[in-house]
């Protein structure tokens, strides 16, 4: 790793710098991305900030309300309950998923598996399934009466119900884990494959056992990719939406409320409640929270990245 | 070599992209633009109903200068979402939209819908059933024409009822309670409810409740659920059923489990709108021949009172384009008022909202449904089910009003019922929470709220 | 011109030869490691227990596919009345497939074609933009460089759902809603792709090579096209794979933007079919939903398998690391 890093540093220093006029050359390549990005993301975000300062009323039309939407949000119990839910979800599901991914990646990288190719492809395949379809399929299987769980219950004489409110979040977490473990595994695996084999050879000569190699060589190697997977996973689970909303009418007793996750709350506010201004305020606050968490968790490694 | 291949691939990708992109460009943009090819007026209709598209052919044959495009935008909720979006963007809204009766006031009070009374619809009062006409007639204007209706009826699985020894169909709620106990004893539930706002509305409506009202100027709403004794009557009754575990609260309506339950008899009856038969046929095909239809149980022996459950109208979105609105009205008229148009839809499974069809012999004497392959299916065991449903339509109590933000109200009803369906709170408590939220919402939306 | 060409070619050839040598060494070493275990510090032999443990996980990953496959062979009636993992009373897979493609005048084929178009144009474009952007971030020091990734990360932290309304209003103003562009333009942005290509470019394109080309007087664009692009090829395939999956599976965006069934992608079309079962007046066609879902994921699975060699080497070449 040390060798690779120093190599990258030399490259960076050799990148053109200082020529007048050539300073902007990078934008030749960055420009197209930046342009589309501004249209698709930046302008809508600014627009969301703008409309979050207004309120549309069925009686009285649209009025400027300043920060009233934000004040209301801070006191909104439904909003905070949804935030609590995704925080719990993130704290539990993300580590489990990333651990599984890392273990699988280490297993693959150890070259000790029969049928490597099969494992690589089969664990990555769930990523190819659209969230809508996977939520649908798991929803069918979860059914306590007629689903697969129901069949197992009948067979074993148990009364397991994975869709009851107390374990529902775990059931959804399982779907997410299923969908994204392979994806993260691949990222880990690829960064492990960059370790030159000679390094292992050297370690073997030093008499290091397999676990020491894992600890001293492989785990540090995973640190880099961990930063990006953690950030993307946090953003992903803070924005939990597809799975609970597809499962909403499969789950009994309205256990998935309209404010189950912040994203669902925003969706329902703006689309069935005529409160898109309030939803915009919610979006801005959630974005701030997400960034705060993502940066707090990975600030250091991002700084290194920005070298 | 690899590199050359790559550039080739990229170049090819670009070429394909452009070809597709250009094709995409040419094909798009029709949508709801003023007039299509060859001087034809093109109108766009949004609907999730499966029978409306069938009327297009007959209509276009008679009106060669008009082209109708019916788009299915998903479920009712999704259509309202899309409609709200399009209306707020002032772009992309259809010319006509299917709108359920409960959502109609919302669009009418926001001045989004064309008043059809000056276009010739003001004289249609006697054509439609009182219930549906009342629903489209808001503050003196006619804001849509009824497409179908959903008078409530009791759909029941006769085989399960017989097995449980319920030989007489329950005609009062007391009898229904007794029947529920017998059915529970043979391992089925008489029905299921996991917190459905439409069902709650219909049941309290039948009990005679009038919890909602809107003032003439549209600025004051009354939301009084907890103080309405008729609401309380229903709440208490249903609470008793739940407490004694006579209702299945575990199966959400319209889920696959629900269909399976209807299919295998573990859900033995439904209190549902008259549009249900075709849904039973497609959702629970194995139970064909076992189901029957009866009038709703009532609160007093010999009572007839009934309510509506669901049902849709076809509304015209306001537009400045005169030629479009004229063309749109022609289609509206054909689909909802013309005998041929109505027949096409009724044959496709719609439950009519007009008196002529409800009285017609052909309709009343139907004993079978047409399945997807066009074959006759005696789903109700040869019963003349439309006779029952037609009578049910006549018994609908007049005067029930929906909120001017009923879509929102129904959207959050389930949230308030979470505790109720898991039996950690009473229905009363859930309703009180719902009322509180609705009142807050109304205030935020600028209404004056009365209890 | 010709001097440049020759120079470029020489540099390229040298670089290619170097890469080939390194790859060959790696491969040989790995083979040796796998067969003899000489260079592997621990027990080199394959472990049955480890394989079994991973097998459990693989089973977990594949199980829902089995469910999907089994249920795609059932009629609607069998789906609602027979055991989830058992066979139906009749084998209806072929009928289901036929019906999927003929239902509603064969609109499914149209959705499939739409999805392919969105993938080709959207994911293709997204890959191109990400490649260029990532290359710029890695190989140029330009004003605002440090801000770019921070802004990108910041923007994707905003819940996409809540951006949908502003995005929709904006696109409506531009007259793009209900056209394929509403689906394509937002698909052009892939933050992960940008990150991937950034890191990949950093390592795969040696600075000396670029310097040499610049000394030769090549324009930046030309250098990019003739020298960098080939070196980036494995990364490009990997990046394309991710953007293809993202576009293929996109659900929320088209849900908001498109209201014309003729422009639906598969995800929206399938969900609409699913919704039919839960709508009064709709026809339950879960058998078609399941079969359609299966058909939807098959092309992606095939793409994964066919491209396996490329994306694995792309990632393995050091795509994601610090």
Automatic annotation (TrEMBL), chain A:
Ranges for domain ABC transmembrane type-1: 83-297
InterPro entries found in the cross-reference section: MetI-like (IPR000515), MetI-like_sf (IPR035906), UgpAE/MalFG_permease (IPR050809)
Residues spanning the signal sequence: none
GO CC terms in record: plasma membrane
Gene Ontology biological-process annotations: transmembrane transport
CDD domains assigned: TM_PBP2 (cd06261)
Subcellular location as annotated: Cell membrane
Domain of life from the UniProt record: Bacteria
Membrane topology recorded in Swiss-Prot or TrEMBL: Multi-pass membrane protein
TM annotation in the entry: 27-50, 86-107, 127-144, 222-241, 278-297
Main subcellular location of this protein, as a coarse class: membrane
Cross-referenced Gene3D superfamilies: MetI-like
Keyword annotations of the record: Cell membrane, Membrane, Transmembrane, Transmembrane helix, Transport
Family: Belongs to the binding-protein-dependent transport system permease family.
Name of this protein: Sugar ABC transporter permease
Naturally occurring in which organism (per UniProt): Bifidobacterium apousia
UniProtKB/TrEMBL annotation, chain B:
Signal peptide interval: 1-23
Keywords: Signal, Transport
InterPro entries: Bact_solute-bd_prot1 (IPR050490), SBP (IPR006059), SBP_1_CS (IPR006061)
Keyword Nucleotidyltransferase: no
GO process terms (BP): transmembrane transport
UniProt-listed Pfam families: SBP_bac_1
Domain of life: Bacteria
KW Signal (keyword) present: yes
Family, similarity comment: Belongs to the bacterial solute-binding protein 1 family.
Name used for this protein in its record: Extracellular solute-binding protein
UniProtKB/TrEMBL annotation, chain C:
Lineage, broadest ranks: Bacteria, Bacillati, Actinomycetota, Actinomycetes, Bifidobacteriales
Organism: Bifidobacterium apousia
Domain ABC transmembrane type-1: 112-307
tRNA processing as UniProt keyword: no
Transmembrane segments annotated in the record for this chain: 48-70, 116-138, 147-169, 181-200, 229-248, 284-307
Keyword NAD in record: no
Classification via Pfam families: BPD_transp_1
Subcellular location: Cell membrane
Keywords: Cell membrane, Membrane, Transmembrane, Transmembrane helix, Transport
Name of protein: Carbohydrate ABC transporter permease
GO cellular component: plasma membrane
């Amino acid at each position: 790793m040390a060798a690779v890093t120093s190599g990258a540093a030399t490259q960076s220093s050799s990148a053109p710098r200082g020529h007048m006029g050539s300073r902007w050359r990078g934008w030749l390549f960055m420009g197209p991305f930046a342009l589309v990005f501004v249209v698709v993301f930046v302008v809508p975000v600014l627009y969301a900030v703008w409309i979050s300062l207004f309120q549309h009323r069925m009686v009285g039309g649209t009025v400027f309300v300043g920060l009233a939407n934000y004040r209301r949000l801070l006191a909104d119990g439904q909003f905070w309950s949804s935030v609590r839910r995704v925080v719990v979800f993130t704290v539990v599901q993300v580590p489990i998923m990333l651990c599984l991914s890392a273990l699988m990646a280490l297993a693959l990288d150890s070259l000790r598996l029969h049928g490597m190719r099969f494992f690589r492809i089969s664990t990555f395949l769930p990523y190819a399934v659209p969230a809508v379809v996977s939520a649908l399929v798991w929803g069918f299987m979860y059914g306590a009466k007629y689903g697969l769980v129901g069949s197992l219950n009948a067979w074993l004489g148990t009364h397991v119900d994975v869709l009851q409110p107390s374990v529902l979040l775990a059931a959804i977490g399982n779907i997410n884990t299923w969908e994204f473990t392979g994806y993260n595994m691949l990222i880990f695996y690829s960064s492990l494959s960059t370790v030159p084999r000679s390094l292992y050879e050297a370690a073997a000569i030093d008499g290091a056992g397999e676990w020491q190699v894992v600890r001293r060589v492989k785990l540090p190697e995973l640190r880099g990719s961990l930063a990006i997977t953690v950030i993307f996973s946090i953003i992903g689970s803070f924005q939990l939406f597809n799975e609970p909303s597809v499962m909403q009418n499969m789950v009994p007793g309205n256990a998935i409320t309209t404010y189950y996750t912040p994203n669902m709350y925003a969706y329902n506010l703006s689309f069935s409640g005529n409160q898109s201004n309030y939803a915009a305020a919610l979006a801005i606050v959630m974005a701030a929270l997400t960034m705060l968490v993502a940066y707090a968790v990975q600030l250091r490694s991002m700084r290194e990245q920005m070298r | 070599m690899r590199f050359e291949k790559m550039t080739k691939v990229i170049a090819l990708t670009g070429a394909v992209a452009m070809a597709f992109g250009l094709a995409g460009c040419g094909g798009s943009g029709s949508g709801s633009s003023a007039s299509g090819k060859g001087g034809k007026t093109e109108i766009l209709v949004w609907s999730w109903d499966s029978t409306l598209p069938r009327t297009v052919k007959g209509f276009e044959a008679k009106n060669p200068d008009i082209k109708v495009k019916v788009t299915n935008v998903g479920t009712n909720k999704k259509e309202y979402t899309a409609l709200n979006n399009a209306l707020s963007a002032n772009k992309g809204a259809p010319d006509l939209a299917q709108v359920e009766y409960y959502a109609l006031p919302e669009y009418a009070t926001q001045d989004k819908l064309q008043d059809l009374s000056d276009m010739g619809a003001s004289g249609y009062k006697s054509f439609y059933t009182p219930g549906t006409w009342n629903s489209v007639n808001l503050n003196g204007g006619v804001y849509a024409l009824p497409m179908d209706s959903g008078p409530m009826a009791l759909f029941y699985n006769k085989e399960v009822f017989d097995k449980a020894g319920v030989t007489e169909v329950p005609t009062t709620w007391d009898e229904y309670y007794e029947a529920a106990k017998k059915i529970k004893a043979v391992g089925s539930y008489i029905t299921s409810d996991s917190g459905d706002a439409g069902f709650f509305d219909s049941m309290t409506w039948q009990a005679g409740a009038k919890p909602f009202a809107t003032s003439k100027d549209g600025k004051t709403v009354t939301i009084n659920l907890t103080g309405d004794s008729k609401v309380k009557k229903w709440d208490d009754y249903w609470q008793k059923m739940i407490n004694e575990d006579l209702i299945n609260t575990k199966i959400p309506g319209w889920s696959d489990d629900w269909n399976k339950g209807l299919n295998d008899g573990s859900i033995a009856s439904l209190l549902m709108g008259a549009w249900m038969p075709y849904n039973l046929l497609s959702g629970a095909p194995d139970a064909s021949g076992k189901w029957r239809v009866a009038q709703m149980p009532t609160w007093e022996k010999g009572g007839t009172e009934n309510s509506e459950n669901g049902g849709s109208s076809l509304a015209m979105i306001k537009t400045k384009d005169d030629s479009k609105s004229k063309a749109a009205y022609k289609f509206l008229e054909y689909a909802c008022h013309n005998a041929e148009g109505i027949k096409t839809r009724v044959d496709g499974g719609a439950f009519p909202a007009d008196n002529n069809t409800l009285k017609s012999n052909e309709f009343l004497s139907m004993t079978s449904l047409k399945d997807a392959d066009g074959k006759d299916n005696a789903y109700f065991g040869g019963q003349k089910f439309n006779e029952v449903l037609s009578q049910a339509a006549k018994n609908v109590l007049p005067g029930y009003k929906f909120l001017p933000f009923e879509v929102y109200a129904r959207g959050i009803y389930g949230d308030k019922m979470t505790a109720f369906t898991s039996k950690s709170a009473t229905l009363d408590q859930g309703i009180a929470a719902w009322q509180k939220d609705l009142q807050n919402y109304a205030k935020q939306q600028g209404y004056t709220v009365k209890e | 011109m010709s001097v440049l060409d020759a120079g470029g070619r020489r540099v390229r050839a040298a670089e290619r030869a170097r890469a080939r040598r390194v790859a060959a060494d790696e491969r040989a070493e790995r083979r040796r490691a796998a067969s003899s275990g000489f260079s592997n510090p621990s027990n080199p032999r394959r472990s049955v227990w480890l394989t079994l443990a991973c097998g459990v996980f693989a089973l977990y990953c594949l199980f829902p596919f089995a469910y999907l496959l089994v249920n795609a062979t059932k009629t609607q009636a069998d789906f609602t009345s027979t055991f989830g993992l058992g066979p139906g009373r009749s084998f209806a897979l072929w009928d289901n497939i036929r019906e999927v493609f003929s239902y509603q005048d064969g609109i499914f084929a149209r959705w499939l074609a739409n999805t392919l178009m969105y993938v080709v144009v959207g994911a293709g474009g997204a890959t191109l933009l990400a490649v260029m952007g990532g290359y710029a971030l890695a190989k140029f020091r330009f004003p605002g460089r440090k801000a770019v990734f921070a802004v990108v990360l910041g923007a994707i932290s905003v819940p996409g759902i809540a951006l949908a309304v502003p995005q929709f209003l904006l696109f409506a103003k531009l007259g793009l809603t209900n056209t394929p562009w509403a689906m394509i333009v937002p698909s052009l942005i892939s933050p992960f792709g940008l990150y991937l290509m950034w890191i990949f470019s950093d390592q795969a394109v040696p600075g000396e090579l670029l310097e040499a080309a610049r000394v030769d007087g090549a324009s930046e664009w030309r250098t990019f096209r003739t020298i960098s692009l080939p070196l980036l090829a494995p990364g490009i395939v990997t990046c394309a794979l991710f953007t293809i999956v993202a576009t293929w599976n996109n659900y929320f965006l088209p849900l908001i933007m498109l209201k014309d069934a003729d422009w639906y992608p598969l995800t929206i079309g399938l969900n609409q079919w699913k919704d039919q079962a839960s709508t009064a007046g709709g026809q339950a066609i879960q058998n078609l939903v399941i079969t359609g879902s299966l058909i939807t994921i098959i092309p992606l699975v095939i793409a994964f398998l066919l491209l396996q060699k490329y994306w694995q080497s792309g990632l393995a070449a050091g795509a994601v690391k610090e």
